[in-house]
Design goal:
Number of strands: 15
Low-confidence stretches: 9-25, 603-618
Largest sheet: 7 strands, mixed
Distance between the termini: 94 Å
Radius of gyration: 33 Å
């Protein structure tokens, strides 16, 4: 029997229902804090007053930004519910959108916003927000690839707000302008005196092959032509430094190298390269510059340095030996700067005043990992020789692979006299495949037909091997069913001189090397080859290193003080990190018909997955 519901109970239920409905309908959006973008959009959709709903969404987006939840803010700011905004609401939406797009590094959204902006857009905001709006506008324009617009926004800002630091603004303007190519600068129509002056400066500084002194003269000539321009009075830091450097380069240089023992030939090659670059440098002042050469083969370098510190020496280039360079690490600061021609071990701390430069195998390992990422090859196999040098290569390679979010499936280390067939079979998974077949035969008690298969998860092989061993490895990759995998190598694979008959076994191997080797039309190389016998092969690389040591010696202040400063050297594009170590970005080449062919861009490498495979022969 069902008991009837009393009228009092029905009345209570109706009252509760009315209260619930009434409560939902009267939620105060002015006080409500949404937990997610979806909840905010749902609440706004129920609001009868559109202006109130849009204010709520904008305020909620701002709250999400304060919490660092820019993805949630983006959902609101790109919602169709934020259409038909009042001018004030639109300005607020634009400011919020620029902040989230910049924080999310959202290039697509930045491009959309850039289409809605012009140079004057930030002037729509009140004084307290104007500088913030201008900086966000600049960031969005730069993120969208519109560097000229970004520079022009900052130029207008410098005219609008005199309280801002001119040096910082001028540095930012120059950073954007120097990224434009000649055609972009030529197509830009000047917009007033300051804009025209900046464009003229950027065009002048694009003079091809201008050396240090010439660049300094270009800056000073521009200043003379534009004396009333703000950048003439407060030049961008890199340009002020360029103008200063010509008169502040070291005059008394000591070249400290070994000329006896196992490093004698290396020391001689570096010395010859340094002097060749010095005498080929038209900007060098022969009357002021004094280069003294000393032999570091026998004496303690710590004692040699102490003696040189008491002289008028401005810079010491050397030593070459890692152990001798490490003798200075117990000093906190070096009164005479040192450009060491090697790198300290990871556990050694460089004192202030020490810089390090050399043909670092670690730089090449990192560059290979970066190239693999550019080529979208994510699962890697590697063969690397045993020894401390191989340990350093593997460590740097692994670290950069992790940085690039790539996977190192397996590394096979090998000795020079080892059975390379076995190493290759292990690398490609053939040994595991054969062992599995043997286990099956033992289990069923009879022989079975079996064709080994290589592992299928690998996308590329990194081969760190000297030419004689590399010429054996490459055919073995094909023999063990890995001929379709692209192969990448450091410069150790190439002897530096064309040998097509021997290097045909290396066809389609991509490798990195220095411009001195891959672009032999260098004027200095042509001149040096007539007078020196150590300009080719490995000694040639050291010769180029010596030449670059001269270029670095002139530009140490530039590399130290300017974050993005670089030198286009004979050993690669040279940059300096905060610890004073010089790093190189080398060029890429590929063996074709046994010859090294320079590759200018990543996509020029032959796609080995579609190329004709090598014959499966040993």
């Amino acid at each position: 029997m069902i008991k009837p519901i009393s009228s009092r109970t029905i009345l209570a239920l109706l009252t509760l229902l009315i209260m619930t409905i009434s409560g939902c309908a009267t939620v105060d959006l002015g006080e409500h804090r949404a937990e997610s973008a979806q909840q905010a959009l749902a609440m706004a959709a129920e609001e009868d007053q559109p202006t109130v709903a849009r204010d709520y969404l904008l305020r909620t987006a701002s709250n999400f930004q304060d919490q660092g939840r820019h993805d949630q803010a983006r959902t609101l700011l790109k919602s169709p519910q934020l259409g038909n905004l009042t001018p004030e609401q639109e300005r607020q939406r634009r400011l919020l959108a620029m902040a989230s797009a910049q924080s999310l590094d959202d290039k697509s959204w930045a491009s959309e916003l850039d289409q809605q902006l012009d140079t004057n857009s930030f002037l729509d905001y009140p004084d307290r927000l104007m500088t913030r709006a201008a900086q966000l506008q600049t960031d969005i324009q730069a993120l969208a690839g519109n560097r000229l617009a970004a520079a022009r926004t900052l130029i207008l800002l410098s005219q609008t707000d005199s309280s801002l630091g001119a040096q910082e603004l001028h540095d930012q303007i120059w950073q954007h302008l120097q990224s434009l190519d000649a055609s972009e600068l030529e197509a830009a129509s000047p917009r007033g005196f300051e804009d025209e002056g900046w464009l003229a400066l950027a065009q002048a500084m694009q003079a091809p092959q201008a050396n240090l002194d010439q660049q300094g003269r270009i800056v000073r000539r521009w200043q003379n032509r534009w004396p009333g321009h703000p950048a003439a009075q407060i030049p961008p830091t890199p340009l002020a430094l360029l103008a200063e450097l010509a008169g502040s380069r070291p005059e008394n240089i000591v070249l400290a190298l070994p000329f006896n023992g196992r490093l004698a030939s290396a020391g001689e090659a570096i010395r010859d390269g340094f002097l060749a670059a010095y005498y080929a440098d038209e900007s060098a002042d022969r009357e002021k510059t004094d280069i003294r050469i000393i032999d570091t083969s026998d004496d303690s370098f710590r004692e040699t340095y102490r003696e040189l510190s008491d002289t008028s020496t401005d810079l010491i280039v050397g030593p070459l030996d890692k152990a001798r360079l490490a003798e200075l690490t117990d000093l906190e600061t070096l009164p005479v700067p040192v450009l060491g021609l090697n790198y300290l071990n990871d556990d050694d701390k460089a004192p202030a005043g020490m810089h390090q430069f050399g043909l670092s195998a670690e730089d090449e390992a990192r560059q290979i990992a970066q190239r693999l990422a550019e080529d979208d090859l994510r699962h890697i196999l590697a063969v690397i020789p045993y020894g401390s040098w191989g340990d350093r290569v593997e460590r740097a390679f692994r670290d950069e692979l992790n940085e690039q979010e790539l996977v190192l499936l397996d590394v096979q280390r090998f000795m020079e006299d080892e059975n390379l067939r076995s190493v290759t079979a292990d690398l490609l998974g053939i040994t595991v495949s054969r062992d599995r077949a043997i286990d099956v035969e033992r289990t069923i008690g009879r022989n079975v037909e079996f064709e080994p298969r290589r592992r299928q998860d690998a996308e590329a092989i990194v081969m760190v091997a000297a030419p004689t061993l590399a010429r054996q490895f490459k055919p073995l990759f094909a023999f063990y069913y890995g001929g379709d995998l692209p192969v990448y190598s450091p410069s150790i694979i190439y002897e530096g001189t064309p040998e097509p008959s021997r290097d045909r076994d290396l066809n389609r191997v991509n490798f990195t090397d220095i411009p001195w080797v891959l672009a032999p039309e260098s004027g200095l190389r042509e001149q040096a080859s007539e007078h020196f016998n150590n300009t080719r092969g490995q000694l040639g690389r050291l010769f180029a290193m010596g030449a670059d040591a001269w270029q670095i010696a002139k530009r140490l202040p530039l590399l130290q003080r300017i974050d993005d400063a670089s030198i286009s050297g004979l050993t690669g594009k040279l940059t300096m990190d905060q610890e004073g170590s010089i790093h190189r970005a080398q060029q890429w080449a590929q063996f074709r018909d046994g010859k090294a062919v320079l590759l200018e861009e990543p996509d020029e490498a032959v796609d080995q997955t579609t190329a004709e495979q090598e014959p499966d022969t040993e």
